[in-house]
Amino acid sequence: MKNIKVGQREFGKDKLFLIAGPCVIEKESIMMETAEKLKKIAERLDLPFIFKSSYVKDNRSSLEYYHGPGLEEGLKMLEKVKNAFDVPVISDVHQEAEVNAAAEVLDVIQIPAYLCMQTSLVSAAAKTGKAINVKHGQFLAPENMIKPVQKIEHFGNQNIMVTERGYTFGYNDLIVDPRSFYELQQTGYPVVFDITHCIRRYGIPSSDPNGGTRQYLGPIARAGVAAGIDGIFIEAHPDCTNALCDAASQYPLDQLEEFLKPLIEIHHIEKKNRTEI
User: Fold this and answer.
1) Residue 6 contacts by C-beta under 8 Å, 6 or more apart in sequence?
2) Tens of pLDDT along 232-265?
């Protein structure tokens, strides 16, 4: 598996790495508090860390729901986090027109799951030379994720990670198939497991306590690490109940450190005993 570079840091070889932050950019005090605490957690646990928050959440199910501050204000906030805490930052891009501005701030450009097969968007992101996190669409067989990866490689960019976030399972539900981790590993790039999006209950407002099945986060995270993933993607918030997006599925920030400890232990065991089949 290739190591990838995010700024001056390497991700993917030996240590489990962490992508974490609020689902969408909220007021400055929340962003700064979360970034500071996440960095301290990552340092104590010796986890390479990327701060994540979306400047626009473009797939909200209602126009009435909070979508984020937008490209310009959102990037200013991410730049402030980046400079204040010396951490790399990642956010989604949804349109080709956003990519160049986003690349001026972001260390990792994220391609949303719904858009992973959009050639113009993936190509524009690849051309920036920035690291790319391409999320596995819930409609796509995992072995077909090699296609967007090859589109990125076509432009000479090999700083790629691929993220699993569950499959559509009937109506308004997602399920994680462990076979996907093996298939994504065949791309040769670090594999990330987005555990908080795969426990969302679609069709239920995220502010409703029934809008997420947070009780499953421990079991599915441990299963994913045991199956050989390289990074954990987890949306975390200091006040989940009042989060402006995905309130029912984000993880409480004050509980995150204890949640991560067994994952690190499992990762050490898995890496030591990994065999090729």
Assistant:
1) 50, 88, 107, 108, 131, 159
2) 999 999 999 999 988 788 999 999 999 999 999 9
Measure the CA–CA gap between 250 and 206, rounded to whole angstroms.
10
Q: Rounded to an integer, what distance in angstroms lies between the CA atom of residue 274 and that of residue 277?
A: 10
Is-contact 240 209, C-beta < 8 A? no
Q: What is the pTM of this model?
A: 0.95
Nearest Cα residue to 117 out of 145, 96, 91, 158: 145
Radius of gyration of the chain (CA): 17
What secondary structure, in 3-state letters, does 192-260 show? Answer: EEECCHHHECCCCCCCCHHHECHHHHHHHHHHHHHCCCCEEEEEEECCHHHCCCCCCCCEEHHHHHHHH
The residue to which tokens 């791309």 are assigned: 187
- Residue 38 sits at the vertex; the CA angle it makes with 37 and 40, to the nearest 5 degrees, is 65
| DSSP H helix total and E strand total for the chain | 8, 13
Extract the tokens encoding 49. Answer: 């860390």
CB 220 within 8 A of CB 176: yes
Domains parsed from the chain with CATH numbers:
4-273 (3.20.20.70)
How far CA 90 is from CA of 71, 133, 241, in Å, comes to 13, 9, 24
Burial of residue 27 (CB within 10 Å: 0-12, 13-18, 19+) is: exposed
d(CA 84, CA 107): 15
